Amino acid sequence: MFSLSQRFQTITNTAITLGVVIIAFIVSTSWIQLYFNDAFHNTVSIANIRPKLNIRTSRYYGSSNGKPKENIKVNFDLDTDLTSLFNWNTKQIFVYLTAEYNNTKQTTSNEVTFWDKIITDPNDAILNLTNVKSKYNVWDVSENLSGKDLNFKLNWNIQPWVGPLINGHADGDATVSIPKKKKKKVVNEEKKVANEENKA
Question: Cα(137)–Cα(135) distance, rounded to whole angstroms?
Fold first, then answer.
């Protein structure tokens, strides 16, 4: 005859096994539904990107030791339909717009985030944004951003009720070249030289 501890262990093992099977079933069926909805091949239109480059020395804009840093904000248009990412196991979707650029000092590339949004309702998953300002000031601590090409793409992260996070992205065809901007010190020096030449 089984003792009380043996019965408790048997029931616990059965419950854990059943729970794992249920979780695996939920995750697999939600993945299958995403696949049949063609959720991993969303189309996105990122257009009318207008970058604004500022050079700030304030500590709130990432400068260090009094050295100015370049900060970029952008205005953009975004058009995409993310309703295919929703199913019965989707809690919310985290969407964020990033730009990638090459790092001249290293062989790797950098990626920065300009805008993000949390979508909890499928009715809000159709994004048709016009002339939206980026949420964040983007600055680079390693090198200047001016003169670089930024390749924009829309990333998404599905946060399900049960199971692991699902990441993906939709590549856009938007590439923007950041114009070069002279630092104030250089501009001031050029003005001094011009004034001296005028006096002469």
Answer: 7
Two tokens, residue 196 = 């001296």
Q: What is the pTM of this model?
A: 0.73
Neighbours of 159 (CB within 10 A): 15
pLDDT digits (tens, 9 = 90+) for 158-193: 999 988 888 988 766 667 777 665 555 544 544 554
Query: What are the DSSP calls for 117-168, one per residue?
Result: EEE-SGGG-EEEEEEEEPSS-EE-SSS--TTPEEEEEEEEEEEESSS--EEE
Cα 37 from Cα 30, distance rounded (Å): 11
**Pick from 123, 100, 121: nearest CA to 112:** 100
Rounded alpha-carbon distances, angstroms, from residue 60 to 55, 69, 103, 138: 12, 11, 24, 12
Mind giving me the DSSP string for 38-64?
A: TGGG--EEEEEEEEEEEEE-SGGGT-B
Residue 154 token pair = 């829309």
- The tokens of 52 are what? 């604004």
